[in-house]
Specification:
five-stranded mixed β-sheet, about 15% strand, about 50% helix, alpha/beta
C-alpha cells in the first residue's frame, strides 16, 4: 500500500515537472462547489516551490479530493498550506446568480492564480487549470487538464484547499440553518435538502436559478392544495 501511494505522489509531481518545461514554476488551480444548490463556490491555486522527498512523504496520500475521505482531506489541508504558496478565493451566491456558476468559478480561479503569481514576484509560470475551460482574460501561460486533480500534484493540492475551505464554510452556515442539513450535504440538492426547501423556502444562501424547478413544483403543489 505504501509503495502504491509513493508511486502515485511521484506520478503527480512528475506530471507537473513534464509540463514545467521552460517555466520557473507550475501553478495548479481547481474549484469546489459548482454543483450545489446553496452556498458560494471556492477556488484555490497552489505552487510548490521546493519539492523534495520529505514533501512527497508528507503528501503521500495526495489525490483528487473526491477520492479521499474527509479525514484525509483535513489532514492534508494544513500540510499543503505549510509547504506551498497558495491562495483561496470565494465566489458569492450573488456573483453566481449574476454571472453564472462557470464564469464565477473561472474568475475565482483567476484571482487565486494571480495572487499566487504575485507572491512568486511575477516569475515565469505555467498554470495548470483543472477541466476543459481556460481562464478568461488571464495574462499568464495556461493549459487545461481534464481530470487534472488526479494527474497533477499542484491541481490535486488546490482541489483539497478549495474543497475543505468550502466544506468548513457550509458546516458553519449549517449552525444558522440546521433544517437544510448542510453539515452533511454541503449544499447539494439531496432529497432531504429538497424537502426542506419545499417546507421552509429558500434562503439568501440558495442559488435561485438552481432551484427553479423545485420552487415551481412547490408552487404547483400549493395550488393543488388550494393555498393560492
Amino acid at each position: 500500500m505504501i509503495l502504491k501511494q509513493k508511486s502515485k505522489i511521484q506520478s503527480l509531481f512528475d506530471f507537473d515537472e513534464d509540463n514545467k518545461k521552460d517555466f520557473e514554476f507550475v501553478v495548479g488551480t481547481d474549484e469546489a462547489g459548482r454543483g450545489p444548490g446553496a452556498g458560494p463556490v471556492f477556488a484555490a491555486a497552489v505552487c510548490f516551490t521546493e519539492i523534495n522527498e520529505d514533501l512527497k512523504e508528507a503528501l503521500s496520500i495526495l489525490n483528487d479530493s473526491k477520492q479521499l475521505s474527509e479525514k484525509h482531506r483535513e489532514e492534508l489541508f494544513d500540510v499543503i498550506k505549510q509547504n506551498c504558496i497558495y491562495s483561496i478565493q470565494e465566489g458569492s451566491v450573488q456573483e453566481i446568480e449574476r454571472n453564472n456558476i462557470l464564469n464565477t468559478s473561472l474568475n475565482c480561479m483567476k484571482l487565486s492564480c494571480e495572487k499566487v503569481i504575485q507572491q512568486l514576484n511575477n516569475s515565469k509560470t505555467i498554470t495548470l487549470v483543472d477541466g476543459n475551460k481556460l481562464i478568461k482574460n488571464y495574462k499568464n501561460k495556461q493549459i487545461t487538464v481534464v481530470k487534472g486533480d488526479s494527474k497533477s500534484a499542484a491541481i490535486a493540492a488546490a482541489s483539497i484547499l478549495a474543497k475543505v475551505s468550502r466544506d468548513r464554510f457550509m458546516l458553519e452556515l449549517s449552525k444558522e440553518f440546521p433544517q437544510y442539513d448542510w453539515e452533511n450535504n454541503k449544499g447539494y440538492l439531496t432529497a432531504k435538502h429538497v424537502e426542506a426547501i419545499k417546507k421552509f423556502g429558500a434562503t439568501k444562501w440558495h442559488r435561485a436559478k438552481f432551484l427553479r424547478n423545485i420552487l415551481q413544483q412547490k408552487e404547483n403543489e400549493a395550488e393543488q392544495l388550494g393555498l393560492f
